[in-house]
Amino acid sequence: MSETAQQEAELPPYPGITLDQVRLVRSAADAEAAQAALLASDVIGFDTESKPTFQKGQHSDGPHLIQLASDELAYLFQVGPHVGPLLPALKAILESEQTMKVGFGLSDDMKRVRAKLGIEPLQVVDLSVALRGGQRNDLGAKSAVAKFFGQKLQKSKKISTTNWAAPRLSEKQILYAADDAQVALRVFRRWLANGNVLPPQKPPKVRRPRPQPPTPA
Question: Could you give the number of structural domains in the chain?
Fold first, then answer.
């Protein structure tokens, strides 16, 4: 174990979110309420979870869960066969240019959201890169919590590799997923409070539709 890892292991635990601070978005009405609450925020936490693949060459069809968090609550959207009624709210939230989304290691998350849902997340800041402060390696959530809060973020590999496509998530899955989104927001708030400022964000690339082959006469 490295010296840094040893120091992090000795820190007091990060308390994390509680179940009463989590909302499972199951209906169009739930989604509309989540949309109103989240878009009232200047910044929200963002993350996704996908059912893991264990066989070589096996392709993930995630995301199976999208987590979005305000300072007060985390909202979990299950992306299963009945996600249709939730999509308008998800699209409005993720494509909003007024509300920033922050998270750790979001590259794959965004690719999967685009591929599966046709949603183009805008105003997204990957804290792994933005907060590394000139260091070569990206800053992970555990290291960020240790650095900014002096606490140890519990990240159970056993929970992270569970079935996120299950129709009913366990309490441990719910708390793990909700924490992933909200801890990013809390770290970002602390980073800003320390006097840091984000550089201007690059405008999103315009994705032009591929030209269609001519229809035979």
Answer: 1
Furthest-apart CA pair in the chain: how many Å? 73
Specify if 212 maps to a domain: no
Residue-range definition of the domain harbouring residue 114: 3-193
Full-model pTM: 0.88
Residues 148-193: tens digit of each pLDDT: 999 999 888 899 999 999 999 999 999 999 999 999 999 999 999 9
User: What tens digit of pLDDT does each residue of 57-75 get?
Assistant: 667 789 999 999 999 999 9
- Strand stretches in the chain, DSSP E: 22-25, 43-49, 65-69, 74-78, 100-103, 124-126
In CATH, what number is assigned to the domain containing residue 173? 3.30.420.10
| Chain centroid offset of residue 154 CA | 17
